[in-house]
Structure formats: C-alpha cells, structure tokens
C-alpha cells in the first residue's frame, strides 16, 4: 500500500480507501450496491488491514445509518488502527431541519454518527453536498467548533462546484477557521469533467482529492459489453447517473481497457483504477466490494504504474470536448496550462 499526505495536514492516508455504502442494504436502492452484514464486514475490514488499507469511508445517509452501525461494530477493538471518515448533509428522516449543512443539523448528525460508529471522534468529517440555503459561514464555524471540541480531526467537502469550494476556503481563511483539506469527487475514465475546474483548483489550493466511483458505478468493470445485456445482479439500473451503459463512448473505453489488460496481464478494473490513482491531485480512491474476492481483486491495482503509452491511449479514447468556458480557456495554453 502506498501512503500519501492529506494535503494541508501532516496525516498519511492510503492511496486506496474502503467505502462502506455496501454495508447494510437498508433500502432497495442500497441493496443494489450490497447487503454486507456484520460478519462479512469484519472479514472485509481484516482483509483491508492485512493489505495496509486503514481508511474506511461511510456516511449517515448510507442505509439511513445502518452502514455506520455495522462499521462501528466491525471495528470494535481496532479503532486505534484505522482512520474513519463519515459524511452528512443529505436528508435523514421526515420533517424540517432533517437535512442540510446548518449548525443545528451538522452538530446533531455528527453526534448521531459518533454513537453509531461507537467512537469519540472521526478523522475526516465531510459535507456530502453543498447546501445553498445555509450561509457558508454558519457551516464552517460549526465544523470548526467540532474540531475544537475534539469530535472531528479534519474536514472535507464532497460534490462541490469550483466556486462552492473556493468560497468556503476563502471564508475559512478570513476568519482563521479550519479549512477543507479534502474534496471527495466523482472521477473516472468514463467521466473526466473533474479535470476542467476542480482538478486545477485542487492543485492550486492544495486540496486532496478522494475519488468516489473510480469504476463509474461498475461500468468499467468489464462486465458491460457492446450489444450484450447487463449481467444479472449488476447495478445497470443505477449507473446512468454517471454514464449510460449503452454509451458507445463507454464501450470504446472498455475496448481499450481490454487491450491494455491483455498487454499488462492485469484485469480491466485494475487498469482503470491504476489510471485514476496516478492522476494529478488524487490522494486516494474509494473502492467498494460486495465480497472478499472483489476486494482482493482491487488490490491488484497497487504496486505498479501504467506505461506512458498506455496512459496516452486511455487519455485519447476517454477524452471529452469541454463545455464553455473551458473549451475557450483551453485554447490558450500560455494562459491556462493543462494540469494533466
């Protein structure tokens, strides 16, 4: 396992972290991701630790708290060996004030997560999305207070736009509050829009990127093929929010992954994961697994690096014409050099 600095801190984190949205299966939506129970979770966590993966990512909204409960029970007696990351913002229950990044909700949800995780603190606490109805100052002051209280160590954002993140960093600097040191964002060979603004921002402001869904919801697993029905039990009905399983562009990417897989002796997912983990600004990729075999397969992406030729092939086949104003900006490399 390779470890990298959580930028803006002195903390070392693994280049591969484990996402536990598969724990619980508390709704039809999350059952499609997985229904890992406590016994399975304990085994997966042991395998992770044996391979040097010590960062576990969850969220209050995953199966409405079940993921946190299972993770908390599974790590009992191992808390000092691991780093815990959880998130809040999205709705947790009916009625007013049950969602958002207000002081009221952040403190309430943080306390609830700590109880479910059976811990006194979390290492990284992330706003799962940007709350445009709450002043940024209110959100950041509440998070800073939780850091002062010792209930969280570092703070992160997720799924923010460039201006959301930049404004938040500016407010933290203005008042001397703790700033976001991580941005958890979607990025994959099938979705490279992250490169247009969020990657340059991360590099400029020294923000660590934690990539969620580096396999595009399983679309880059090699199971989705041109003119073939999606495999039984796959998440085909859910991946359209990141990429269409019927996309010709996706199939072209998978064809190239298949070619490189044969040349390197690695699996298609291992090639796709390796490409993401070596991109600029990426500190860690969040992997998920329904079972031990899937998890161990993911570890095959570690300890090697794609050749420049292979990277160039993947870059070319996955390239997407930027929308405005990025295509205009990219027209003059003297003014805005590419981060890649």
UniProtKB/TrEMBL annotation:
Gene Ontology terms: cellular component: cytosol
Keywords on record: Oxidoreductase
Family annotation (InterPro entries): AKR (IPR020471), AKR_Detox_Biosynth (IPR050523), NAD(P)_OxRdtase_dom_sf (IPR036812), NADP_OxRdtase_dom (IPR023210)
Superkingdom assignment: Bacteria
GO molecular function: oxidoreductase activity
NADP-dependent oxidoreductase domain segment(s): 16-318
Pfam families: Aldo_ket_red
Protein name per its UniProtKB record: Aldo/keto reductase
Organism phylogeny: Bacteria, Pseudomonadati, Bdellovibrionota, Bdellovibrionia, Bdellovibrionales
